[in-house]
Amino acid sequence: MNGPSAKCSMFESCQLCFRLLLQHSDAPERVGQYEYWAEYKPHGQDTILRRHLGIGQQQVLLSADVLQQDAAALRDVLGVPVSGDHVGAVKMSQDQRLLAYAVSMVEGAEQYCCVVKDIDTGRLISAGVIPHATCFEWSGDGSCLYYCLADDLGRPSKVLRRRLDSVSSGDDVALFTDTDPKHFVTLTHTKDWRYVLINSHSKLSSEVHLLDAEDSNSMPVCVQARTPDLEYFVEHYKGHLLLLTNKLIVSTAPPTHAAAVIGCTSAAAGQDYSLVTLPASQVTAEHSGTDNWQLLVAERPDVAVTDLDVFDSGIVLHERLAGRPALTLLRLSVEPQSVQQSASLSVLHQQQVTFPDWVFAVRPGINQDYCASHMRMYLSSPIVPEVQMDLNLASGQLILYQQQRHGQYTPQHQQHQSKGSRKAAQHAPMVCKRLWATGADGVQIPVTLLHQEELPYDGQQPLLLEVYGAYGQILEADYKAYRLPLLQRGWSVALTHVRGGGELGRRWVQTQHFKWTT
């Protein structure tokens, strides 16, 4: 199409994309007695964080105005410029009484100052002002803040503990330092607030230390000393540590028993992650290591585990199944043992969550409530904007968040159907489907293709090819508004998930084909 009408159509498409981006706002998520959400406005200032106080009552926790007020107070306290233009990490204490967040110090530079404030009064707590903190985490009772500082190269490397009733920073206790420039240190807490985790990760190895979140004087204990090519990531569930690891595990238990004991102690680089467990009581300063690791979920063909979420009712494995997102619900049982032996953890039930056929991308919500009965997620495809869904953790069923307010929702697109389906074409002007291309060596490579319903495959149509395959990064097949004008003008878009990306797991990363250029 040529002439003014084509330009008008393109302009209207761009306006639509812009409005969709501006009006996007995640639905409120409950943590304990409060619901939290961010608000994005087409006109006026964004609200970074709000929470419900009751019927018709809301409280603004962070906004542009609040940031500027806090930045002005920090300039007086520190005697240095504080821009207050950006927010980094935001961490709420377990009792939701105190808020810690990182506010930008210098415009255009990645330098932040940790700020702690009393939510009810809005008062800044002087001991909670920590310049140049790269990350921070709360103790279980909110009396202490653990924080990380960077070395001269800007690498997070040192962990300290500060009591919020301390008089000066000289009272801070140094807990951990990693001097190896290949390792980066972060702080998190387990979902149930039982432990604060000191994570020291590199691209090829891990080392995690536990801090008792209920003891403000505790010292870190190593789960497993760093071993070349061994990676692991830690969570906690009812007295047991859960670890995602690439360690090669050989089950020696009967097939009917889900908790298998490790039969091989060697690490295997390039393995996809499996899920293992051990009693938390067995990790001590005198004893740590893999001797007591037990297998819960082993590697499975065509399935790559990418993450883990923990709830009181069970755990959720985030996966890639044949290159597409998937979820598995695990309901666990703590089995008592003898007086001499610790209780063991086993899988009672394993359930694959069923997604609609049109789903090509899944973004999890914040999901910070350990006792929640539902898990928030956002489903999309390259031609369907995000749909907010809740996963019922008891039944494994997906529930549309907007359905109660807006009635039944049907995505305005259709998977590939026969060309003779005129009815489908009326309701689904675009199609999105997964193809498999054969590489030069015979390997099947996933491709996500999107185009207009009636587009002929005659080799004459323009095609935009998006491709990235490095560092295990996934080229997500999610919704991007900038593609709409091309699609409406008759283009096709192909997302090629080549080797080097993480779509098919760690082995897909290891088999990348490349040429050294540096």
In words, what does this structure look like?
The chain has 518 residues and is mostly beta strands. The chain contains 6 helices and 33 strands. It has helices at 4-23, 64-78, 403-406, 422-427, 484-488, 506-510, and strands at 29-31, 34-39, 47-54, 57-63, 87-92, 98-104, 112-118, 130-131, 133-138, 144-150, 156-163, 173-177, 184-189, 195-201, 206-212, 221-222, 232-237, 240-245, 260-261, 274-279, 294-297, 303-311, 314-321, 324-335, 344-352, 361-364, 374-381, 384-392, 398-400, 430-438, 444-452, 463-467, 492-496. It has a 5-stranded antiparallel sheet, with no helix packed on it. A 4-stranded antiparallel sheet has the order 1-2-3-4. Strand 2 and strand 3 form a beta hairpin.
How widely separated are the two ends? 45 Å
The level of helicity is: 10-25%
- The value of Rg in angstroms is 25 Å
Strand percentage: 35-45%
Overall strand count = 33
Task: Note the total helix count.
Answer: 6
What structural class do you assign from the helix and strand content? mainly beta
What form results from the Cα inertia axes? globular
The biggest beta sheet reads:
5 strands, antiparallel
Mean pLDDT: 83
Uncertain stretches of 5 or more adjacent residues: 1-23, 252-270, 403-428
What strand line-up does the widest sheet have? Answer: 17-18-20-21-19
